[in-house]
Amino acid sequence: MSDRTIHLHQEEVKITHASEMDRRSFLKKAGGLLLAFSFEAGANRAEAAGAGTPITNYIHIGADETVTVFVGGGEMGQGIWSGLAMGVAEDLFVAWEKIAVEPITASLSWLTGGSSGVSRRMTTFRTAGATARTLLVNAAAQTWGVDPSVCAVNNGAVINTTTNASLTYGQLAPLAATLPVPATVVLVPSTSFRVLGTAVPRKDLYGKVNGQAKYGLDVVVPGMVFAAIKNCPVAGGTPKLPITKPVGALAVVALDSAVAVVATNSWAAMNLANSLSVSWNYPTDYLTQNSTNFATTASTLMNSTKPYVAGADNSGAVYTAETAGTGAAGLSTAAKTLELNYSFPYLAHCCMEVLNCTASVTPTSCELWVPTQAPNSCLKTAQALLPTLPASAFKVNVMLMGGGLGRKFEQDYVKQALQVAIALGKPVKLMYSREQDMGRDYYRPMAVSRVRVGIDAANNITALHIRNVVPSISNQRGVVLGAKGDSAGTEGVVGRSYALPNRLVEYVQHTSPIPVGYWRSVGNSFNAFVMETAIDEIATALGYDPYLLRRQLLANDARSLDVLDAAAQLGGWNTPVAAGHARGIALAPSFGSIVAQVVDISMPTTTSIKVHSVACVVDCGFAMNPNSVEAQMQGGIMHGLSAAMWGQVTFSKGVASAKNFSNYPAAKMKDAPVITVQIINSGAAASGTGEPGVPPIAPAIAAAYFKLTGKRIRTLPFFPGVTMSG
């Protein structure tokens, strides 16, 4: 046999199901085999079909030998659809060229976030591929009247090793669809991987290059009209009625906190919405919703002495997110104490593709075309608005996203499209202008952090006390916070492996009413700056090289130490820098991965920084597709660089400052450094890569800036209020 043939005697994986009916879910389709397995604990067929329990693999084997993998979640350029399909190709033992990928039906889909799109479900997809392979082998054995042990698989075919006869998967699929699902299956050992770990081309790239790929804004539905949104500029406000329909508009539709203007094309709808005069009912406290007041509130909360008490009113309470050793007690006996204060602004998502959704509602059906990170949530939004329609009446078409970054978890734009379609009785494509998109975001929370460090006479760190004041994403969604507060407010400073045995991390919820949401790397995006800049400042206070101090503090964390050392080597830490340049280093674990970055910067002017190069080392356990990992690191670095340099949303009377890229700049090609990415396959559990590239870049730049200027940056962005130039 060739090296592309596999015999079934490797590691077995058990498939657990609630009942015989639960473990068998087959649908014949066009002479092929459609496998829909649930491998997650507690899942069952009824839940999967009716209540939206994630079904983590659909495989369709066509008569033409094409293997279509149906993948859930949202594809926003991070490569999860192809990444998970690689697992199927590996264990189904088919060539990558035979694989096609399509989105799964929304009722069986899942939310995409937390950098878990590939790592969390790879075993499930591989198990599904192995299950399909086993069924096909059993079908071949039955056809030949032999024991399955004499069968092997090779590139989409089953081979009789005694007679050398072969049958293709397409030929075997109809019979395989009738066989019982095996209780255990065999996964290909990592030493024999053909697909996983290789840089196969992503399935979505060809269509994106030639224009065939369909995003939400590309949707065309017969008879549709176009709606543009004019949101109340203050969250929670409502439009005053009546609203006069402007000349040229087909309709105006009053919504919860917005008005939709409908026209025959998107350009007309946007212009009409922009010029539409609307009076608003503002929230009673809108006059106090300004950035100065938010900062004052944060200062008050930073000094709160109110303890958290379960079941009590915990507004202004101090939650203990992490404690170790004697906590902050060592501060009182320290020979030297550092107090470091950091602050961070609200940030917009500013995805390149603005919010949009197309909806068609009839008396008997509802269909959506939507770029979303949460397909099942879209389905539930539609069902809540149309409760009399049966489940079979709903269809959600998941479109490619031109960026999601956490914004497209939300359902505001989906609900608005549905409301307009219901009001008009015809298909509607609803879209935001850039100004509406930025002006009514679910922003990354502002944050204020205080770090206190105790140092004894022998230059040992005796205590680390961090208190963060941050609005709660979870609490805004109705979650009652537990004893540790909101983890999104402290992730990145809790659980760090620096050898600081006496530490205390506290969380206090900020009371700002500004809507907040998940943003690429969430709390890690500011907390890595807190921790890594504090380490850099401690190194200065002790007279240490910041890289060597990290080495000392990470002595018991071999994995982090390997990443740190590799980044120092890759970035030339111990080599001379060019005149007028400086280097900075930072390390941040997030979402199971560890990333270290070394930057080389200069300052062409006193009000600008040029980042010449970024040496980035990532340990994500095992890189399923090295090209995708490299791309995610590059994208994360550019995203984090933009935010660090210019990202800031301020508020006055509840109105956001961000309007467009003109006053919320993004890095352009001329700002892009040379980025070199090194991947370490450490053998740890495979982990996420979509977000971990973001957190280290800002503190690394700040560290280099200090070396260059002697000035510490403790408030981001570096250059607030900058407007976009050419």
Count of DSSP H/I helices:
17
Query: What is the averaged pLDDT score?
Result: 91
Could you say which structural class the secondary elements and strand pairing correspond to?
alpha+beta
Radius of gyration: 28 Å
**Termini Cα gap:** 61 Å
Task: Give the uncertain stretches in residue-range form.
Answer: 1-11, 15-31, 38-56
Strands side by side in the biggest sheet: 14-15-12-22-19-20-21
Q: Describe the oligomeric state of these chains in a short phrase.
A: single chain
Please tell me what the overall shape is: globular
CATH C-level class of the largest domain is Alpha Beta
CATH architecture of the largest domain: 2-Layer Sandwich
The number of distinct structural domains comes to 3
Name given to the CATH homologous superfamily of the largest domain: Aldehyde oxidase/xanthine dehydrogenase, molybdopterin binding domain
What percent of the residues sit in helical stretches (DSSP H or I)? 25-40%
Strand content: 15-25%
| Major sheet characteristics | 7 strands, mixed
Structure description:
The protein is an alpha+beta fold and 726 residues long. It folds into 3 domains: 5-210, Aldehyde Oxidoreductase, domain 4; 216-283 and 355-431, Aldehyde Oxidoreductase, domain 4, CATH 3.30.365.10; 294-346 and 444-709, 2-Layer Sandwich (Aldehyde Oxidoreductase, domain 4), CATH 3.30.365.10. The chain is 26% helix and 24% strand. The strands form 8 sheets. A 7-stranded mixed β-sheet has the order 14-15-12-22-19-20-21. Strands 3-4-5-6-7 form a 5-stranded mixed β-sheet. Strands 17-25-24-23-18 form a 5-stranded mixed β-sheet, sandwiched between helices. Helix 2 packs parallel to helix 3. Residues 1-11, 15-31 and 38-56 have low confidence and may be disordered.
